[in-house]
Amino acid sequence: MRGTTRRLVAVAAAVTAVVAAAPTPAQADDRRPYVKVGYFTQWGIYGRDFPLAKVQQSGAAARLTHLNYAFGPVTADGVCASADPWADWQVPFSDARSVDGAADVAGQPIAGNLHQLAELKAKNPQLRVLISLGGWSGSAYFSDAARTDASRKKLVSSCVDLWLKGNLPGLAGGVAAGIFDGIDLDWEWPGSEGNAGNVIRPEDRPNFTRLAAEFRSQLDRLGRANRRHYDLTAFLPAAPAKIEAGFEVDKIFRYLDFGTLQGYDYHGTWEPRTNQQSALRVPPGAPDDPDFSVETTVGAWLAGGAPRRKLVLGLPYYGQGWTGVAGGGSGLFQPATGPAPGVFAAGTEDFKTLAKLPAQGYTVHRDLRSGHAWLFDGTTFWTYDDPAVLLQKTLYIRTRGLGGAMMWSLDGDDDHATLTRTVSAGLR
């Protein structure tokens, strides 16, 4: 253990030196707290066996400012709905799987994840909980819903009624009121390709601004009635082409409390060779030009006029993996035969699983200047963020004057919330 600690201290010192040597913007206002946003997936309570109780028990909840509950889809009728009412407000949790340690009982007003979110907030008064709308598979009809003034008003009022006022189908009116503190827009992507079958229009770009304005207006109206502030945030893409196609960067932040930037999936097993998925800077020898990195993503948003302190950097709690890797060396930028096997899906794996691979014959490689790490055993390659990389990224956030960090997703961390603890320590 002492040897491991010494290595981590050495890495941390090197990380600090590299980031400190980088140019810095105008001094940020450090008195403003950094946001630390963790996504909790609705479906994680099933095969992943990840109830909200684990967010509490691991210590993660105490170290977050926001928890985004993912996802609530936008329907073909242009309204907000639940993707899984059983998970959202029906499934009963045992005492062992409940945040407060008490089992759900028959006849209580509400159960499911929403009741657990209420318990989590009771134990963590600093925590703000947002409903995330859309996501990769729930964004098909955003374009239709955002198309006209009437359709925007219809969508927003339905979202406010369902998620903020808590009027759940089949239950007493307002039974879930007060659980959510705002709305996170995960429209993937306005004006450009996302999941197959998504409706896309060139006018999505101004319509996203108009939709954000309508959300802000209705949230503020509700907030005045309730004497509270409701947050409005958005998940924003990495690719400059998607930014240009979908977002009026100089306008949307008038309405958003902050935006979370896609800081991952820069490369993956849809490509035939190994690569980084979340590097701070484009590594030397990278085969693609232009290429993706945190630096290019943040730079694109800043160039468009986004305010630094409203940019929140997304961090992955999972890795991308290839197998059948040829070419030797460290495995980076080498041809592969296909995705590596994963517990839940080929080509992707949680940090908690990847963290065990060095004990199984994998070597940890890292490029401190480019800000990324990977695992390689001679055949299988995984690009991922470990605590040392996340420490480097929190230093980058501070140095660049950004607003904080977002993590996708909490179920990828280990039982001790090692990654979340690292991010929290780096952004105190």
From TrEMBL:
Domain GH18: residue ranges: 34-428
GO molecular function, one term: endochitinase activity
Known catalytic reactions: Random endo-hydrolysis of N-acetyl-beta-D-glucosaminide (1->4)-beta-linkages in chitin and chitodextrins
Tree of life domain: Bacteria
Signal peptide start-end: 1-28
Broad enzyme group: hydrolase
Entry EC no(s): 3.2.1.14
Keyword NADP: no
GO biological process, one term: chitin catabolic process
Keywords: Carbohydrate metabolism, Chitin degradation, Glycosidase, Hydrolase, Polysaccharide degradation, Signal
Gene3D superfamilies linked to this entry: 3.10.50.10, Glycosidases
Entry annotated with the keyword Methyltransferase: no
Pfam families: Glyco_hydro_18
Entry similarity comment: Belongs to the glycosyl hydrolase 18 family.
PANTHER family: CHITINASE (PTHR11177), CHITINASE 12-RELATED (PTHR11177:SF317)
Protein name: chitinase
UniProt organism field: Actinoplanes teichomyceticus
